[in-house]
Amino acid sequence: MSCFVVSPGHRRSGVAAALLEAAVGHAFAHGAEIVEGYPVDPSLRPKAGPADLYQGTVKLFEAAGFFTVSTEVSGRAVMRLRR
């Protein structure tokens, strides 16, 4: 997965979830079997600001059905979604 850039006035309104859903749909429509993302876990990085959250949050990915594969990097997860 790539970055989520959402204007401050539109954050916490579902834009990132819609972008994630569209990205996953596009990947699966073009033959992907697995989609992987590297979101931040704000509960483990409480000082993470908007500049740190551009790859999304664990909660966002969990809500989209992704599962955690690794948490080796403190405060960041490797998450996957299988077709």
List keywords for this structure.
alpha+beta; 3-stranded antiparallel sheet; flat; 83 residues; 16% strand; 3 strands
Account of the protein in words:
The protein is of the alpha+beta class. 25% of the residues lie in helices and 16% in strands. The protein has one domain (8-82). The protein has a three-stranded antiparallel beta sheet with strand order 1-3-2. The longest helix has 15 residues, at 15-29.
Secondary structure: elements and pairs:
Layout: H1 15-29, E1 34-37, H2 58-63, E2 67-70, E3 78-82
Antiparallel strand pairs: 1-3, 2-3
Strand content: 15-25%
Spatial strand arrangement across the major sheet: 1-3-2
Q: Tell the overall outline.
A: flat
Low-confidence stretches: none
Order of helices and strands: HEHEE
Mean of the pLDDT scores? 91
Could you provide a short overview of the structure?
The protein is an alpha+beta fold and about 80 residues long. It is about 25% helix and about 15% strand.
